[in-house]
Design brief:
The strands form eight sheets. Strands 20-25-21-22-23-24 form a six-stranded antiparallel β-sheet, sandwiched between helices. Strands 8-7-6-3-9 form a five-stranded antiparallel β-sheet, with no helix packed on it. It has a three-stranded antiparallel β-sheet with strand order 13-10-17, with no helix packed on it. Helix content is 14%, strand content 40%. By secondary structure, it is mainly β. It contains four helices and 25 strands. This is NlpC/P60 family protein.
């Protein structure tokens, strides 16, 4: 059975490429669009629970616009869901991405000008013009120091995750304003050009290979419904509801705590 989290089909439409979709469904070729809000919730159902979040400039394929709600599939990881149609705009090729934990987009190339948006790490932007210290983008003027060229990648997922230290824990969150364990791992891995799905069970199955050696920097430890990055042989880094934030934690203490609270033992140790 297809995973509904990554299968573009609902009660009315199905992606044209899907085999075996119910004959009563309208078969649809998607419309390519992009997110035009700093952060938008990707909902399980219209008006329902948040499954994930999408950031400014992220590409989506829209399969339906029904009563002002769009049914979309995110290109970064294939996750499907619903969001407000007014959070989407025409597709536009991104030229840069936000590599600072967060930044502001200003009305002019001047830090004293009004700030239009707060943009999170990973937001994708299109350059319109450049000055010495700013790049004018589709969101506004963003400091050069906070941007990487679209193909520029980082090389240490742990260092990326450390940018989020202190970020409040948010179930389904994917931004500097709030993030969960799988969102943190996904942000870290995608920034380093490692494909990564959105949820922990998918990550445990699809990311890296099982490691039998002692944990080392950059490894992933999985529990049922949770994931952490290994900082060193004694320390992990994770977004967690115990601290309600992205935080370091002694590895052995975390393993014992998680088991004692009834969430079980480590289910996998993976290496990229």
């Amino acid at each position: 059975m297809s995973d509904p989290r990554i299968t573009p089909v609902n009660a009315r439409v199905a992606a044209a490429h899907l085999p075996g979709a119910a004959p009563n469904l309208r078969r649809v070729t998607p419309e390519p669009l992009r997110v035009t809000r700093p952060v938008v919730d990707l909902l399980r159902a219209p008006g329902g629970a948040r499954d994930r979040q999408l950031l400014w400039g992220e590409a989506v394929d829209r399969y339906e616009d029904h009563q002002g709600i769009s049914f979309v599939q995110a290109r970064r990881d294939g996750y499907v869901g619903y969001l407000s149609s007014d959070a989407l705009g025409p597709e536009r090729a991104a030229t840069h991405w936000v590599s600072a934990p967060a930044t502001h987009a200003y009305a002019a190339a001047d830090i004293k000008s009004p700030d239009r948006h707060m943009l999170s790490f990973g937001s994708r932007l299109t350059a319109l013009s450049e000055t010495e210290k700013f790049i004018e983008t589709d969101a506004g003027f963003v400091p050069r120091a906070h941007l990487h060229p679209i193909n520029g990648r980082l090389d240490d997922p742990v260092a990326v995750a450390e940018l989020f230290i202190g970020t409040p824990y948010l179930w389904g969150g994917n931004s500097r304003s709030g993030i969960d364990c799988s969102g943190l791992v996904q942000a870290a891995l995608l920034a380093c050009a490692h494909p990564c799905p959105g949820d922990t069970d998918m990550q445990e199955t699809e990311v890296g290979h099982r490691a039998n050696e002692s944990p080392q920097r950059g490894d992933l430890l999985f529990w049922k419904g949770h994931v952490a990055l290994v900082v060193d042989v004694d320390t992990i880094l994770h977004a967690n509801a115990f601290h309600m934030a992205v935080s370091y934690e002694p590895m052995r203490a975390a393993i014992a705590r998680i088991q004692d609270q009834g969430d079980g033992a480590v289910t996998a140790h993976k290496r990229l």
